[in-house]
Amino acid sequence: MRHPLVLATLAATLSSLVGGAVQAQTAATPANYPTKPVKIVVGWSAGGVADVAARIFAQRLSAQWGQQVQVENRPGGGGIIASGVVARAPADGYTLQMVAASEITISPFVRDDLPYSYDKDFVPVFQTTLNPIVLAINANSPYKTLPDVIAAAKASPGKISYSTAGNGSNPHLAVELFSDEAGISLKHVPYKGGGPASVAAAGGEVVLGAMAISSALPYVKAGTLRVLGVTGTQRLANLPDWPTLAELGYRNAAQSSVWTGLYVKAGTPTAIQKKLADDFAIALADPAIKAQLANVGAEPGGARFTDFGASVKAESTRNEAIVRKANIRPD
User: Fold this and answer.
1) Phi, psi of 155, rounded to the nearest 5 degrees
2) Which segment of the chain is annotated as a signal peptide (predicted)?
């Protein structure tokens, strides 16, 4: 016969194990998530493409979940600082990351000091937006068209400056492709996000700015920026006066764009990952969200998990070749 103390100890141990298992199962149950505020970390300054997407979805999901969804900007290092915040947080779905494409498809080829592997340490859950890139100039600039800028750059190689969201950002690669096709050399001035890059161009700190439409549009509407060209092969339906880089003859640069997407820390319960993808898809299908995205020049994404990951891999392969040819290094 077992001693009562031994039986009591066994019972307590079993109760603890069962309780822990039930608690873990409950935490991973989609219907129960989220039970507290959720944080979306953004590796860029306010006004950038990832920040804009994060805030649009955060507002919608706060109402949808009945829990506050907070956006935390942690700019610097091309997204490394933000990724560090997510990597150090528990893999429980309460600390998410809204990334811009360059963090995943360019930074691994630009930086040798990445402390994380986006293939192993994070999971692509949902592609939120697709964003064309604009080449824009101060509204009072003497250069009225893109050919004007090209002529000036040919007359003064390396003197015409342009701003982007940073070294190795998608706009940076787009301008590298454009410069190569146009046969010119421009002076790159990197900033910490599309918002600051737009401010620099609008304020005349640089001659030209390259940024996602969502970053540039507030300054275009305010009359301080003028768009000279936009990536893509067809003019935008809601902004038909902007010529495409394809029609101007720069077809390689015209293929450039910036997507944003939701990533989580590897190890986040699969059930929570699926709920996140489902709920972001529900939000994206809302006409009000589509209208908000259209107002900032963004198109809805929608790719999930495997499809999202496959497109990321293909884009990474293309971008690696551009980075190697241009010898792009970190800020």
Assistant:
1) -75, -30
2) 1-24
**Alpha helix positions (H), the chain:** 4-27, 49-65, 80-88, 101-105, 107-110, 146-155, 170-182, 194-202, 213-221, 251-254, 270-285, 287-295, 305-326
How many Å apart are CA 184 and CA 142, to the nearest integer? 19
Evaluate if pTM is beyond 0.85: no
CA–CA separation, 181 and 164 (whole Å): 19
Task: Determine how β-strand 225-230 pairs with β-strand 69-73.
Answer: unpaired
Residues 64 and 152 in one domain: no
The pLDDT > 90 percentage for the chain reads: 77
Q: Does one domain contain both 119 and 83?
A: yes
The closest alpha carbon to 158, from 136, 179, 187, 135, belongs to 187
pLDDT in tens, 186-212: 999 999 888 899 999 999 999 999 999
Q: Is 16 helix (H, G, I), strand (E, B) or coil?
A: helix
DSSP bridge pairs for 123: 264
Report the chain's mean pLDDT, rounded to a whole number: 90
The pLDDT score that the predictor gives to residue 63 is 96
Tokens linked to 128: 């939120």
Q: How many residues comprise the chain?
A: 331
Domain limit, last residue, from 202, 223, 254: 254
- The residue from 254, 272, 303 where one domain ends is 254
Q: Could you read off the pLDDT of 208-229 as tens digits, one per residue? A: 999 999 889 999 999 999 999 9
Residue 126 shares a structural domain with residue 271: yes
**Using CA of residue 54, residue 56, residue 59, residue 62, what is the dihedral sign?**
negative
What is the residue range of 142's domain?
132-254
67: which 2 tokens?
Answer: 């829990």
Q: What is the CATH number of the domain that holds 177?
A: 3.40.190.10
Tokens 């935008």 found at: 236
Dist CA 282 CA 289 (whole Å): 10
Number of domains the chain is built from: 2
Q: What is the pLDDT of residue 77?
A: 83
What's the mean pLDDT in 76-101?
Answer: 94
